[in-house]
Write a structure and sequence with these properties.
mainly alpha; 2 domains; 9 helices; elongated
Length: 147
């Protein structure tokens, strides 16, 4: 949820605005109040992005689009790959949204593990929180690689 991610990031005002909107939605609150809370959340998110923008602009690697699909120059360390697969298995099994962060942080290793078509499908499933489908692809690839 936005509230949870904001809490993980330490973005207190965003977390508070998201919590208020979440409560209003759960309580089937007045539409006008929900719209006001949605605007408050939008304002807080925009303020957060505004505070982050200078840091992002100073580091072009953070704003560069991802590179096109390709195979890594060399295979990843087998032990590191095994640990990465175990971590992803756990996160997918626990329906943990942080699985997307793990994937994004280790794209080359997952590209190595999964064929191009499977990688694209795996990535789509992880980012759509379709964890059962992603886990099935991961298990097949891990078995193929003996991981």
């Amino acid at each position: 949820t936005v509230k949870g991610v904001a809490g993980n990031l330490g973005a207190g005002p965003v977390q508070a605005a998201a919590a208020a909107l979440e409560q209003a939605i759960a309580g089937r609150g007045d539409a006008g109040r929900m719209e006001a809370l949605r605007r408050r959340l939008d304002d807080e998110l925009n303020a957060l992005v505004g505070r982050l923008r200078p840091a992002l602009d100073e580091n072009p690697a953070l704003t560069r689009p991802p590179s096109p699909a390709h195979s890594p120059a060399s295979p990843p360390d087998p032990q590191a790959l095994k640990a990465l697969v175990a971590r992803m298995r756990q996160q997918l099994g626990e329906l943990d949204p942080a699985a997307a962060d793990v994937l994004d942080g280790h794209r080359e290793a997952f590209r190595f593990l999964l064929r191009d078509d499977d990688f694209a499908e795996f990535e789509q499933h992880v980012h759509a929180y379709a964890f059962a489908e992603a886990q099935a692809l991961l298990e097949r690839a891990a078995t193929d690689h003996g991981v």
